TrEMBL record, chains A, B:
InterPro entries: ArsR-like_HTH, HTH_ArsR_DNA-bd_dom, HTH_MetalResp_TranReg, WH-like_DNA-bd_sf, WH_DNA-bd_sf. This is Transcriptional regulator. Signal peptide: none annotated. Residues 8-98 form the HTH arsR-type domain. GO terms for molecular function: DNA binding; DNA-binding transcription factor activity. Keywords: DNA-binding, Transcription, Transcription regulation. SUPFAM superfamilies: Winged helix' DNA-binding domain. It comes from Pilimelia terevasa. The keyword Secreted does not apply.
DNA sequence: TCCACGTGTAAGAAAAAGCTTACATGTGAT
DNA sequence: ATCACATGTAAGCTTTTTCTTACACGTGGA
């Protein structure tokens, strides 16, 4: 597992809102506006969290044009499986580029 | 898995410094001051990160009195094993108390 | 035309996290 | 006594994250 991707996944999941989002989308697709209502959070806020989750490949998005012609974005949890132990983390660390920007 | 503890573990691991700390302590105990030097970070900073990791039960600490009588704190990665999938997260969510303080 | 509903995004406030510097204690060796 | 090394912790700055409000566009139906 790549260090940067692991970090992206963990920091994305290490947030209560995003944990709930992933849980809600486990095996069930839903469109953004409706999801925001279900979770009781604003749509811009959900949009922000979804970006983080998509960037970490934990959630996939599909922009569909409904029969009525309206654009609707469906999101769903990606089928990820991360096994975390001190050892798996240690193996990922060498590929962690992070380090403050070397300008 | 308990929701709050899972969140604590994920938010603790979702940080480059702490990921390195856990990796460095995988199967190898070390005392704080020396660890700070190895990682190239200040001791107060390491102290702060260790607190977070201990609180999440990802690292264990042992305060020992060395032969010479000096107090030395040894830390080590706890033998944790977290399996993360959309489903395991979904199962943990019901026990997530988080919610803004209900006063 | 205007409303309801979907999308995205920018700007700024508020809160949390990260980090440094400085101070405090205690021990053993010089 | 002073130095070297271990510990902890408080104060304050800086940066990032989180969240709200407000605006933009496009569609279908009354």
């Amino acid at each position: 597992m790549n260090g940067d991707r692991l970090l992206a996944a963990l920091s994305a999941l290490g947030n209560p809102q995003r944990m709930r989002i992933v849980a809600t989308l486990a095996g069930r697709r839903q469109y953004v506006s409706q999801l925001a209502r279900e979770l009781g959070i604003s749509r811009p806020l959900l949009h922000m969290h979804l970006q983080r989750l998509e960037a970490a490949d934990l959630v996939t998005a599909d922009l569909e044009i409904s029969d009525s012609g309206k654009a609707v974005k469906y999101v769903e949890a990606a089928p990820f499986a991360l096994h975390l132990t001190p050892e798996t983390i240690a193996r990922a660390i060498p590929t962690l580029t992070e380090q403050k920007e070397q300008k």
